[in-house]
Amino acid sequence: MESKSSLSGIAREIHGIQHVSRAALYIPVLANLYRRYDDPEALKLTDEDIKFIQIAALFHDSMRQTKKWITGIKIAQKHSMCI
């Protein structure tokens, strides 16, 4: 897990609670935008589907161990294969 930033004292300053909260918040916004333009996949989504997608968004960076994008992807892919 990332250590706390020496300047801010925040453990996950980039991929922390604010980031995942925004991601979850935007799920229904984007679903409705796609619905507005008659996207067939968005039109099939139920309220329950959207809640499950929001839960997934909350955990989408939970295995991240680094700020580096490429390294983070490799680590996340390695761990997601185990799940």
Features:
elongated; 4 helices; 83 residues; mainly alpha; single chain
Task: Write up what this structure looks like.
With 83 residues, this protein is mainly α. It has one domain (17-82). The protein has helices at residues 17-36, 40-44, 47-59, 69-82.
Flag low-confidence runs.
none
N- and C-termini, Cα separation: 18 Å
Largest sheet: none
Structural class: mainly alpha
Query: What portion of residues is helical?
Result: 55-70%
How many domain units?
1
CA radius of gyration is 16 Å
Number of β-strand runs = 0
**How much of the polypeptide forms β-strand, as a percent range?**
under 5%
What is the overall pLDDT average? Answer: 75
What is the number of helices? 4
Order of helices and strands: HHHH
* Silhouette: elongated
Give a short overview.
With 83 residues, the chain is mainly alpha-helical. It has helices spanning 17-36, 40-44, 47-59, 69-82. The longest helix is centred in the first third of the chain and has 20 residues, at 17-36.
